[in-house]
Design a protein that fits this description.
The protein is an alpha+beta fold and 394 residues long. It has helices at 7-11, 14-22, 33-43, 100-112, 132-142, 162-169, 172-182, 195-216, 225-238, 284-299, 312-315, 333-350, 353-382; strands spanning 2-4, 48-49, 51-56, 59-64, 66-73, 76-83, 95-96, 120-127, 146-159, 187-192, 244-251, 254-264, 267-275, 303-305, 320-330, 383-385, 391-393. An 11-stranded mixed sheet has the order 2-5-6-8-15-9-14-13-12-11-10, sandwiched between helices.
């Protein structure tokens, strides 16, 4: 077992890392060396690298892309072992080729023997199709660890076939909206390949996304500058390699819907999208989805993955869905019981889609209000009494 704890160590692994990933059961863009290193540059400042390599001689059999992240529960400060990329990676897993059970057992034994380094192990978004779940249950029971395996997000997708694509092409409301816009101006589709143009289009996506969520009184993820920096840095690295596709629906020479996604392992994953709110009644995002689904079918891709989350628009196109699972290992028995109660309750609630949607919207609204309050407080702190007794602002 080899522990990598410095970013330089991580950088030197690119070829071996991506080579092993092609042989791994969960082969996703979120486990590529490019995603891991770019994410770390943007979000790793307060975290500790804890990447584990399982080797046989000089051959790498497995990689655990882990980190130790600080967290806080009430007044208690905790250290969590998590997958690098949490919470921004839609799919996470260990990277293992052959001898998977033996590799996972070695990894878990190493982690359990070093309980002084962590308060809990929280491995989220492991695909339900991965054998990591069954093997982890078997190994953790053997090690007598206190663990829970909990259902997380659903992940809709469409397996591309002539029948599935034909059904989408026949959707009447999309056809009607497309016709309406076409009669009132030039309507075109753009798949941007130039890094400069893509960066500019991504800026428009940010603006549209912020505008959509502001009108709803909900916080947009793009309020975080680090999040925007990550997507821009990925464009610089992955677009020239053909691993990112940025699509736009152009109406009267202006983008009215944009989708940012990844091409990997004969799949396209839609990662974030936006639309111009003034055209929302015409479903510009749906028009764009319909177009690129057909394009990917013609190009021979196997699947379009809509990523985490059960939003209704995804179900309009999907013919397949899987669920992610979280693996949690607790050091404290009391914490184990509390976590078990909380997540079992959450699992019951999340089965009611309407209730889950309302809770999600309420949480986002609270975040938006808290951010607005913080910004207002910061402005108030900047108000000072200017010379001569008048109010001034710094």
């Amino acid at each position: 077992m080899l522990l990598l704890s410095t970013f330089d160590d991580l950088l030197h692994l690119e070829n071996d890392w991506n080579s092993l990933l092609t042989k791994s059961e969960t082969n996703t863009i979120f486990l590529t060396h490019e995603w891991i290193t770019n994410w770390w540059k943007c979000f790793g400042q307060d975290k500790e690298l804890f990447v584990l390599l399982v080797r046989h001689g000089q051959k790498i059999l497995g990689i655990a892309p882990l980190m130790i992240a600080p967290s806080k529960v009430f007044i208690a400060k905790l250290k969590r072992i998590q997958f690098i990329g949490t919470p921004h990676s839609d799919y996470c897993d260990f990277i293992v080729g052959e001898q998977k059970e033996a590799v996972l057992e070695a990894l878990y034994e190493y982690l359990i023997q070093r309980k002084k380094r962590w308060n809990e192990i929280n491995l989220v978004n492991v695909p339900g199709t991965s054998s990591t779940l069954l093997l982890s249950r078997k190994i953790l029971k053997k090690l007598r660890a206190r663990f829970n395996m909990l259902s997380a997000d659903e992940c809709p997708s469409i397996s591309l076939s002539s029948e599935a694509v034909q059904q989408i092409q026949k959707k009447r409301d999309i056809i009607r909206h497309c016709k309406y816009l076409s009669e009132r101006g030039e309507l075109t589709f753009s798949n941007v390949k130039d890094v400069g143009q893509a960066s500019g289009l991504l800026g428009t996506l940010f603006q549209q996304h912020l505008k959509i969520f502001q009108t709803k009184g909900i916080s947009s993820s793009f309020s975080d500058a680090k999040w925007k920096r990550l997507l821009l840095s990925l464009i610089n690295e992955l677009l020239p390699k053909g691993r990112i596709d940025l699509w736009a629906l152009i109406f009267k020479k202006e983008p009215i819907a944009i989708v940012y996604g990844f091409k990997h392992d004969k799949k396209y994953l839609t990662y974030c999208q936006s639309y111009d709110p003034q055209y929302s009644r015409y479903g510009p995002g749906m028009i764009l989805f319909k177009h690129f689904i057909d394009q990917y079918f013609q190009a021979g891709l196997d699947e379009v993955d809509f990523g985490r989350g059960g939003e209704l628009y995804k179900h309009r196109f999907s013919n397949k869905r899987v669920y992610n699972f979280d693996i949690r290992v607790e050091k404290s028995y009391i914490h184990y019981l509390l976590v078990n109660i909380y997540f079992k309750t959450k699992e019951i609630v999340m089965k009611d889609r309407r209730l889950a949607g309302l809770i999600s919207e309420y949480k986002s609204k609270l975040q938006y209000e808290n951010r607005s309050f913080t910004q207002q407080s910061n402005r108030t702190k900047c108000e000072i009494l200017a010379p001569g007794g008048s109010q001034g602002t710094v």
